[in-house]
Amino acid sequence: MDGQCQMAALGEPSMEPGVWNQTEPEPAPDSFLSLCFLKTAGVWVPPLYLWVLGPIYLLYIHRHGKGYVRMSSLFKTKMVLGFTLIILHTSNVSVTLWRIQQGMPQAPEFLIHPTVWLTTMTFAVFLIHIERKKGVQASGVLFGYWLLCCLLPAIRTAQQSSQGGFQSDPFHHLSTYLCLSLVVAQFVLSCLADQPPFFPKDPQQSNPCPEAGASFPSKAMFWWVSGLIWRGYRKPLGPKDLWSLARENSSEELVSQLQRKWTKNLSAAQRHSKATECKSRGSLRHSGDAPETEAFLQHTVHKRGPLLRAIWQVFRSTFLLGTLCLVISDVFRFTVPKLLSLFLEFISDPVAPAWKGYLIALLMFLAACLQTLFEQQHMYRLKVLQIRLRTAITGLVYRKVLALSSGSKKTSAIGDVVNLVSVDVQRLTESVLYLNGLWLPLVWIIICFVYLWQLLGPSALTAIAVFLSLLPLNFFITKKRNHHQEEQMRWKDSRARLTSCILRNMRMVKCHGWEAAFLERVLHIRGQELGALRTSGLLFSVSLVSFQVSTFLVALVVFTVHTLVTEENAMDAEKAFVTLTVLNILNKAQAFLPFSIHSVVQARVSLDRLAAFLCLEEVAPEAVDSRPSKCSAREACISVQEGTFAWSRESPPCLHRINFRVPQGCLLAVVGPVGAGKSSLLSALLGELSKVEGSVNIKGSVAYVPQEAWVQNTSVVENVCFRRKLDPSWLERVLKACALWPDVGSFPAGVHTQVGEQGMNLSGGQKQRLSLARAVYRRAAIYLLDDPLAALDAHVGQHVFNQVIGPSGLLQGATRILVTHALHVLPQADWIVVLEDGAIAEMGSYQELLNRNGALVGLLDRARQPGDRGEGETELTTDTEDPRGSAGGGRPTGGPERSVKLTPDKDSTTSEAKTSVPLDDPERGLSTGKDSVQYGRVKATMYLTYVRAVGTPLCLYALFLFFCQQVASFCRGYWLSLWADDPTVDGRQTHAALRGWVFGLLGCLQAVGLLASMATVLLGGIRASSLLFQRLLWDVARSPIGFFERTPVGNLLNRFSKETDTIDVDIPDKVRSLLIYTFGLLEVSLVVTVATPLAVVAILPLLLLYAGFQSLYVAPSCQLRRLESARHSFVCSHVVETFQGGAVVRAFQAQRPFVAQNNAHMDESQRVSFPRLVADRWLAANLELLGNGLVFAAAMCAVLSKAHLSAGLVGFSVSAALQVTQMLQWAVRSWTDLESSIVAVERMQDYAQTPKEAPWTLPTCAARPPWPQEGQIELRGLGLRHRPELPLVVRGVSFKIHAGEKVGIVGRTGAGKSSLAGGLLRLLEAAEGGVWIDGVPIADVGLHTLRSRITIIPQDPILFPGSLRMNLDMLHEHTDEAIWEALETVQLRALVASLPGQLQYECADQGDDLSLGQKQLLCLARALLRKTQILILDEATAAVDLGTELQMQSALGSWFAQCTVLLIAHRLRSVMDCARVLVMDKGQVAESGSPAQLLAQKGLFYRLAQESGLV
Question: What pTM was computed for the model?
Fold first, then answer.
């Protein structure tokens, strides 16, 4: 091929024949758009491209082979075309050599160029062959090569066809045409993908990701995701539609890689730290402050380094590839302003050839497209890296949770771990996108100033001054905004704590009629929160406007200085609009840099928190010498010698010099007072404690029942089997022995019923029995039972002991260590260990210890004192075993009332199971009532609901303001185009000052309009937030108590936290973004249409395509977001579940299955996250390409209409079109985000239509104050049910209680005792019959009126967040003197007087800073202040010690001597001094009379007394 037939630069041939006429003067030879340059580039660019990238590509595919591809027709066609091209170029070389031999003079390039192309084509064919051998289905490198080869010969082809001369040299003409045809064919074939590899290295998946088999254009523009998007558009996406994960993306692979690197780096860091510490000790030994300095050195050892190095080692290749894509994208980003400058030069030059304009337009389009594609590839790579990093870090945290020691759990609460997984991991992964923002914006700024200097000279320096002057303003705004954000977060946390406490204790709130008081408190806090949010939002709006207007301010100052200071400088289109384009890039850099710094600083804090957590102390596997082999009869299965144990290495020992041996098959009972260390002993045997000295040996498998029942959020059968094979007959025996068979029979789905999160569908006793059943089903050799009888009623506890634990139970023959407070079972134990203060006081058989008259006898004597908890009865204080003050620094458990009686009104198995849900919910699998994943598009009524909440006039005003500011923006740009077109006289423009003033005025008007419109949206959003929150709060507060029993608190809290936050922050933000981008798009469309009306032909199809992409994207994107949120909640729930039950998991040695389950949850989360991120990239890439099409249309129309257009108008049009690429995708993204966020409005409306309870107050009330004067209660045929579809739990109850009478109500679990009390307070409305108090039917009394005249003291003492005075006098009805008098009566005056603030002392959540007895006495003081005629005691003294009980009885006897008292008792001993006792059975009054009469009848009351050991 001769020198004139070589490849030319990127571009399309003009159809004008004169363009290629060589007699036409060419542009200056130094221009890169000259034909000479294009031809030279055409010859050398493709070979250079392939020879640079080819070897690197060969090395890559050699290391990452995927099998091999069979010889397909596609491969054979490629090879045939390749060899044809080789033959063609060989013939070109041969012809040139023959001509030289014939004496025809030939230029050297006629031989060099074909030779280079021959060798390059040979290399390309070799690459095609190697790709097939390595399993490559589509090649990006060869796609780029054939594209270059295809575009560049087109110039020469057009040139030859326009010049003619075919007759003079037919060979070269034919070879050129044939070469172009073959290269085009190769390019077309490179757009196709080959078959999958024949023997793939990875196993075949059921639904593989289509990316692997996609062609290169499909990969570049993410078309391979179109199938999923189309399916999501036509129908809701389900799990079956999502792709399987490749092995390299699986949780198992990612976590194992990171764990290996983390362990290696941590070990190296620890070795280095020890070596440094040794050196420092040696050097400091001579100084006096050595200990302090050593301690300082230990604390300054950073834990962040090993984790950061591990992350870098695992993920660096992906990050560096993404960074390379970003750098290449930025090269094209800065090419666009240069091309725009050349284009405006072309428009200004009346004699410039048309082909140059078309070529520049095409180059602008290609540069913008390449910038888009590389930027989207950068985003794709880093987003995938984010998902992988999130998976790896979460897996690492989960594995740490499984190994955390008990001491470490004291320093890390559940909430901390959830924050690590949800917040810190999220912040760390988000920072990946902004790491390049630490250095790249600096490069942008330097390049932008170089551009500005070239355009404007020294005037560009003023841009630096303006940007620097804006920095203090933004710094000040950011500082003030952070202050208000922190204030808002404090109010938000305060509201969340109060709301959570109210919802968790709604029964107590409703019992006392406190709803209105709490609503007022919550709304007051909410008002403060919204006030801080309003101020913060307004400051943010000012900050946003300053960023938006900074481009205008810099342009104004630069243009003014440039035109007014120097006489010879005039404004033209190139300077004006190229400067604006450069300033837009500069503005992005200015905004991106501080944002990146902020994100990275946050990530550093999160990385420190994660590293600190990962370095916490773990359970030492060598603490217990455990052997799986069973021991022989009477051989010691458990032996402890000189064992001293502590909860952590730093804490003092909690068990001292423990020595005992347990033979095989022995039932060993461990007893002792509260805090003696009984649970600690079991923890030591499990290896949960830090062993200070001694040895522990265990032979055989272990099963463990913790004191606080732990169940999984799964079905009953899966909880019992606990990863073991199902044996139906053994399962039935276990459930019957554990007294679960009747309960399971009443569950909706039997053993397959879901128990809910933390077993919320079960009562406390059911959870304890389920925990015991899990251990029994294990068939282990050794059972460690930590007070499993504590949460059970007397008769159930006796049944469980006899059938499971006792000598004839299912566990006979197994070794059992039973920690218990039920002293009546001790005679059946083989051996007894009595603990006191963390040491063994005595041990032996029951008879031996009685004869010794030692510690055990003391325990038995205390148990027989008045007010004891009774042998065999529920010992509620056992849940405070080793609380904060136990020997050795305390056991890290929850509060005392947490696990025993979570649901005080669950009287029947029916009511206990009533919150269960069907098991056919594949998306959730959670028993969370109505809280399911929404499907499809959001209904239009939700938008109307939000608009009405904002206010229609305010919405219209906001639209008007946005319209006005956009009109100002349009006028400003149009005015600048007129300024640029002003004629110059003696090097100056005559109206420069006027133009500058008007330009500045229009910019200021736009800034004011933008600020006003943003503020209006913000204020409207806050108004809507306030209104919607009030409606939600009112709807929930007005709901009956049954609503709270069947609606999980988590669902309600979700509405009051996450959904409220979405409406507070996200919706106004998305509405603002949507309006800004939508009006910006309208302006750009108007500008392009006004400048070049011909562009309407291109704009209309582009808008149609835009609408198509938008409608296709929104529905699947919203659905994927919902699924992703649900999947992530599974991950968090599983982490929390494992954190709570870590000791059980380790005891059962189930770590491996739990890790596998966590991997499965993470993989499911990834399966949703990955399609969502690809769908985002699909949208962004295609919409940006559409936007680039608008730029191309504007430029091409400008070339066609060049004769009628000014350079200023063209600059205005093209520079505006260049902004549209970002606007298009962000408009759709904002709309999608808004649709996802508006779901929060839908969810907050969920409870608007639920049934509400009766009115709180009635205008005409039958009960006039001071009703009730006497306190007489009469029930006439009363029937109660929990829900309309359920049977009656109380039926046909009729009796009369005289004024001042003390009546006890007793019965078995489920008899209807608490339901009866609920009927008196109208917590349950009468289904039949009624209740009369002093002759007034309570159905005719307002709920608050009724409940304010009856006092109830519940079993669980509850304090709310707030002052002590508020807790005692919720309605502010009493003076301080009256409150002090009540405190004096309950003997708490001295305690309260000693507290900081006294009555204004702020109680912690649930009053955790006070003891159980103190809280119960405060609740009693609260009851005393109410001074009502009717008092209901719901076993109020069951959870307190003897001293507190005596204080309460004394206070009650003096203050309520003349009152009617109803004592609901779970223990018979409490009612023995009542005047009358009602015995409930199956919802009816079975017996009634004095305790002596009932005992004499020897009926149900007598049998209950026998079970309780009273007779």
Answer: 0.76
